[in-house]
Structure formats: structure tokens, C-alpha cells
Amino acid sequence: ATIVVGPKEGIARQNRYELQSFIARHYVEQAIIARQNKDEQAAKKYYDLAAKPVEEITQLVGGSTTVIAQQWQGMLHLAAGDEKEGYRTLYKVYQELKTLDKPDQVSSVDSYLCYILSRMAAARGSLGMQREFLENAISNRNSIAIEKPQAILDYAAIMLNLRAGQYAAPVLESYTRIYG
Q1: Which of 41, 58, 87, 120 is such that its CA lies 20 to 30 A from the CA of 132?
Q2: Three-state SS sequence of 12-40
Q3: How large a percentage of the chain has pLDDT more than 90?
Q4: Under 8 Å between Cβ of 139 and 107
Q5: The whole model's pTM is what?
Q6: 3-state secondary structure at position 140
């Protein structure tokens, strides 16, 4: 998706962003997994691989002060093992994007951002925050459930833990209907 000035420039930029975002997500996740497995060498390798697409995303979105660039900087903090700064940055981005949502419409907050925040909330034992983030990740314009069906089961488990089985049952039924 080469960006060429002209009538299709916007489409080319969006395609380039989606591609770089996909690559960055993959490497950030691999770095996080490597850190969890105490493999610092692999974590460093994946962090370095994630840095290049994040740099390109930053250029595509107009600089490091944009909310999307800040989101990806937060992801890089996580990939580097700086969870405290990563969480702080990502939560700030989440709050900024959440204020743009309109009532009675699906959320436009990045579903991957919500998914990562839900995993961090789970690690901290914050069930309420985990529910909020997963709910936004799943019932989103670009639902994370397409990429990570496990998120649906995680959400149902949270609802059961919150003693809200009446909400968990339809979620589990839809999962069964779609994934068998």
C-alpha cells in the first residue's frame, strides 16, 4: 500500500496504517509473551521488530502528539516491559477516545486497545475494569471477537464472577452458535 498523492491517497494511507498496525500488534504480543516466559532475548528481539511499524504509524497519523501515536507508544512500553507506564499511557488514551463515543452507538475505541487493557486489569485482579474493557472490545465497531474469540468466553466468565449469569448466557449461546 504505497502512498501516492491523488484521489486515492486517503485509502492508501488507511491501508498502510492497517498493515503496520497488524504487524505492530503481532510483535508487541510476542514481546509480552516472551517477557511472561522470562525470555528477555526474544522479548528484546520482538520489541525491536515492533518499533519499526510503530514509527511508521506515528508518521502516518501526523506525529507523536496524536492519540493514536500515543496508543502505540503505550504498546511499546508494554513490549519493553514497562507495564506501569504502558498502562498509564493506554488508559489515558482510552479515556480520551471514550469521550468521543456517542450514547446508544457502538464504541469506536480501538478494540485491541480495550483487549490489552482488559488483560492488564485481569492481571491486577480488577474484575470491574476487566468487564468494562472487554465489553468495549467485543461490542465495538471492529470487534476483537473476530480476531480473538477467546475474549467472548473471558467476558462470559467475568459476568458469571459478577453474579450476572443472565448476561453470560446469551454471550455463551452466541459463541456456541458461531464457533460450535
Answers
A1: 58
A2: HHHHHHHHHHHHHHHHHHHHHHHHHCCCH
A3: 67
A4: yes
A5: 0.86
A6: strand
